[in-house]
Amino acid sequence: QKEVEQDPGPLSVPEGAIVSLNCTYSNSAFQYFMWYRQYSRKGPELLMYTYSSGNKEDGRFTAQVDKSSKYISLFIRDSQPSDSATYLCAMSDNYGQNFVFGPGTRLSVLP
Amino acid sequence: DAGVIQSPRHEVTEMGQEVTLRCKPISGHDYLFWYRQTMMRGLELLIYFNNNVPIDDSGMPEDRFSAKMPNASFSTLKIQPSEPRDSAVYFCASSPFTGGPYNEQFFGPGTRLTVL
After folding, report:
1. Are A47 and A60 within 8 A, CB to CB?
2. Residue B4: exposed, middle, or buried by beta-carbon count in 10 A (0-12, 13-18, 19+)?
3. Cβ neighbours of A18 (radius 10 Å)
4. A46, A96, A98 member nearest B45 (Cβ)
5. What's the half-sphere exposure (Cβ side, CA atoms, 13 Å) at A102?
């Protein structure tokens, strides 16, 4: 079993849809949870990060962490074609520097 | 700020050749990371440095890979000899030290390596 699992997709949705992206993990030591967005032929860029369990909202994006289930989610409201990218979840323990990335979910938002 | 700079952006080489990838981190950042991304394995951390000192190289796949950071503004990842299975996109990232355990990593555009 990989340390971080993520459905690779591709996931295609119509513009304006609510998108749900998810990761599961096995290491209970993970405390920091990140979502990175990667456009084609570009490096990943940080979207959001959360510490421990709970929700965090930033504009159209909401990140949720459920440590008891070892499950994290990213919701995108009112999805736009510009949201089309690969979304990578990442996690680290309290030492912070060694990030473990999920394989990424490729999202296409169709106009 | 120009962000993390990597060169070359694309490299095509033949099996057995030496390959050197270069990275200039964001000025003032204390940490530098080298990652490899493939379809099969996703994004994997190879090695990271703190203040030019290698801290964790457990992700370096084998002795053919080596990384150096001679100063705060430059790092290299070398593969010698290269093999077709080394074909991947190699990313460099840097992060500042904020005093807390979590520091955002900023990624460069990557070097796409093809070994024939």
Report:
1. no
2. buried
3. 12
4. A98
5. 31
CA distance B88 to A32: 27
- The tens-digit pLDDT sequence of chain A (111 residues) is 678 999 888 999 999 999 999 999 999 989 899 999 999 999 999 999 888 888 999 999 999 999 999 999 999 999 999 999 999 999 988 666 778 999 999 999 999
Q: What is the DSSP string of A7-52?
A: ----EEEETT--EEEEEEE--TT--EEEEEEE-TTS--EEEEEEES
- d(CA B13, CA B2) in angstroms, rounded, equals 28
Chain A residues with beta carbon closer than 8 angstroms to that of B48: 97-98
Please give the backbone phi and psi of residue B109, each rounded to the nearest 5 degrees, phi first.
-80, -10
Residue B85 backbone dihedrals phi, psi, to 5 degrees: -70, -5
By Cβ distance, the residue of A88, A97, A103 closest to B31 is A97
The region that residue A8 occupies, defined by phi over 0 for left and psi between -120 and 50 for alpha, beta otherwise, is alpha
Name the closest residue on chain B to residue A6, using Cα atoms.
B42
Interface test with B, best of A30, A97, A101, A105 (most B CBs within 10 A): A97
Cβ atoms B110, B37 nearer than 8 A? yes
User: CA-based diameter of chain A, in Å?
Assistant: 42
Does the distance separating the beta carbons of A51 and B48 come in below 8 Å?
A: no
